[in-house]
UniProtKB/TrEMBL annotation:
<dbReference type="Pfam" id="PF20473">
    <property type="entry name" value="MmeI_Mtase"/>
</dbReference>
<dbReference type="Pfam" id="PF20466">
    <property type="entry name" value="MmeI_TRD"/>
</dbReference>
<keyword id="KW-0808">Transferase</keyword>
<dbReference type="GO" id="GO:0032259">
    <property type="term" value="P:methylation"/>
</dbReference>
<feature type="domain" description="MmeI-like target recognition">
    <location>
        <begin position="186"/>
        <end position="389"/>
    </location>
</feature>
<dbReference type="GO" id="GO:0003676">
    <property type="term" value="F:nucleic acid binding"/>
</dbReference>
<dbReference type="InterPro" id="IPR050953">
    <property type="entry name" value="N4_N6_ade-DNA_methylase"/>
</dbReference>
<dbReference type="InterPro" id="IPR002052">
    <property type="entry name" value="DNA_methylase_N6_adenine_CS"/>
</dbReference>
<dbReference type="GO" id="GO:0009007">
    <property type="term" value="F:site-specific DNA-methyltransferase (adenine-specific) activity"/>
</dbReference>
<feature type="domain" description="MmeI-like DNA-methyltransferase">
    <location>
        <begin position="1"/>
        <end position="168"/>
    </location>
</feature>
<protein>
    <recommendedName>
        <fullName>site-specific DNA-methyltransferase (adenine-specific)</fullName>
        <ecNumber>2.1.1.72</ecNumber>
    </recommendedName>
</protein>
<keyword id="KW-0489">Methyltransferase</keyword>
<dbReference type="Pfam" id="PF20467">
    <property type="entry name" value="MmeI_C"/>
</dbReference>
<dbReference type="InterPro" id="IPR046816">
    <property type="entry name" value="MmeI_Mtase"/>
</dbReference>
<feature type="domain" description="MmeI-like C-terminal">
    <location>
        <begin position="391"/>
        <end position="467"/>
    </location>
</feature>
<dbReference type="InterPro" id="IPR046818">
    <property type="entry name" value="MmeI_C"/>
</dbReference>
<dbReference type="InterPro" id="IPR029063">
    <property type="entry name" value="SAM-dependent_MTases_sf"/>
</dbReference>
């Protein structure tokens, strides 16, 4: 390390003997005014660097929440921001209008999902830009319980026409601009929460939320006993499926009664008893919106089911998976609010979102809970740039989707969680996905992608072209 330091800076002072140097100030860095601690002047250039603490909003102490409120006073949405973002914003304000610079080691969360929209517009408002970036790398410590997180190193400076640098695995690349997702684009793109898809793909919605106190839902044994006791109730039962049921081959059922069926359904004692319990549960709620739907206790609290084939989208995933295990459902399934749904039977849509290039986009655009991606329709799916597809493109993709589904069916004893575990994934399923990736990526360009960074770089350039504006 000393030799490298000398190579870069020309000299390396001996570590021993120790000498008096520097000025250590004890205090809360987020509460203190940095300009009082280290005043700036026209003839000085200050370089700030460090490895500030990271904590998501749900893990922050009262003091840390108070610190964030102090730093982001008057800025909307600060309560959801990660602790480490406070150092970036405070540093940006400190160096604004000077030749000084700042750089921090951070978890990559500040460059993903909603954190981008919460933090980076406020930094850019100070005429600050990203100077350089070391793209995500895995960091581990030597503790007994090894902490493994993905980190980035992000440098800040005042806006200029000087070159910026992207670092990855010991290599550097000179670029014109670096956006908050750590990708080289001409402008600082910040993905909006888009309500409809940018591309020509079907819309996505949340699944149905019961808000029933558990009275409209049945476990398999409850369902069997219920049908045995009330055989005429069978036609009002549908499979109820959430992310856990989907990926772990679990079974649950629900009562699904349309308004025009209610009078007949109420003649079945078991159904009327359950509906009465739903009504009681909702009336006793502290939420006015829940009490307001007590009079329609036969319905789910938020019914979004459509009698149609659909694609099931698990909201919570695993960072270990190379592919997201989406599912095809027929109209006998009601998707839960732990999932999102695309009401279509089009195989090519399933293929597009099952591809590696889509998963790369989702991991960058949607953010994570801990290290696991959280699928967002507004940030991810609706912003996903899809090129114009020919009928032949759709046919080619659809054919490979059938191969994937057929391969899954060869392993009825394995859950999707097992099938998509990178250590357990059967070779034929992996091969089918690889062939799908090749076909989908040919729809984007003829040249092979080098790696995931190359894929993401291309997607952002296509997004920029399709929207015509950085934050459109």
């Amino acid at each position: 390390m000393n030799l490298k330091f000398k190579e870069v800076f020309g000299r390396c002072n001996p570590a021993l003997p120790l000498n008096n140097s520097g000025n250590v100030v004890r205090g809360n860095a987020l509460q203190k005014d940095w300009k009082n601690v280290c005043p700036l002047s026209d003839n000085t250039q200050v370089f700030i660097l460090g490895n500030p603490p990271y904590l998501g909003s749900s893990l922050q102490s009262d003091q840390q929440k108070e610190d964030i409120a102090h730093v982001f006073f008057g800025i909307e949405g600060y309560k959801s921001i990660d602790l480490i973002a406070s150092w970036f914003y405070k540093a940006a304000r400190y160096i604004a209008g000077t030749g000084s610079r700042a750089a921090f080691v951070s978890t990559n969360s500040i460059c993903q999902g909603e954190q981008v929209g919460l933090l980076w517009p406020n930094i850019f408002e100070n005429n600050i830009e990203i100077d350089f970036v070391h793209q995500p790398f895995k960091w581990e410590n030597n503790a007994k319980k090894n902490a493994a997180v993905y980190c980035v190193i992000v440098g800040l400076r005042n806006s200029s026409n000087s070159e910026k640098y992207l670092f990855k695995e010991g290599l550097s690349q000179t670029v014109e601009n670096i956006n908050p997702y750590l990708v080289a684009t001409k402008r600082n793109i910040i993905l909006p929460k888009r309500q409809k898809p940018l591309s020509r793909i079907p819309s996505m919605t949340y699944g149905s939320k019961p808000t029933d106190g558990g009275n409209l839902l049945l476990e398999p044994n409850e369902k069997d006993e219920f049908v045995k006791k009330y055989p005429e109730a069978k036609k009002y039962l549908k499979r109820f499926i959430g992310a856990s049921e989907h990926t772990n081959n679990k079974e649950r059922w629900c009562l699904w009664i349309n308004d025009q069926e209610l009078n007949e359904a109420l003649t079945i004692r078991g159904i009327s008893e359950r509906i009465n319990k739903v009504e009681e549960f909702r009336l006793n709620s502290t939420k006015a919106a829940t009490r307001a739907i007590a009079g329609v206790a036969h319905r789910f609290g938020e019914p979004r089911y459509i009698a149609s084939n659909s694609i099931l989208v698990p909201i919570h995933g695993s960072d270990r998976r190379q592919y997201i295990p989406f599912g095809f459902l027929d109209k006998s399934f009601v998707a839960s609010n732990a999932t999102q749904v695309i009401y279509t039977g089009e195989l090519y849509v399933f293929g597009l979102i099952s591809s590696l290039i889509h998963n790369v986009w989702i991991k960058a655009s949607c953010g994570k809970i801990k290290e696991d991606p959280r699928y967002s329709s507004t940030l991810g799916y609706n912003n996903f740039p899809v090129p114009s597809l020919t009928d032949q493109n759709k046919l080619d993709i659809s054919a490979l989707v059938l191969e994937i589904l057929s391969s899954r069916e060869q392993y009825p004893e394995l859950s999707l969680s097992d099938l998509y575990d990178p250590d357990l994934m059967p070779p034929d399923l992996m091969e089918a996905h690889s062939r799908l990736d090749a076909v989908v990526e040919r729809c984007y360009r003829a040249k092979d992608f080098v790696n995931d960074e190359d894929r993401l770089d291309y997607l952002f350039k296509l997004y920029e072209k399709m929207t015509g504006a950085p934050n459109a």
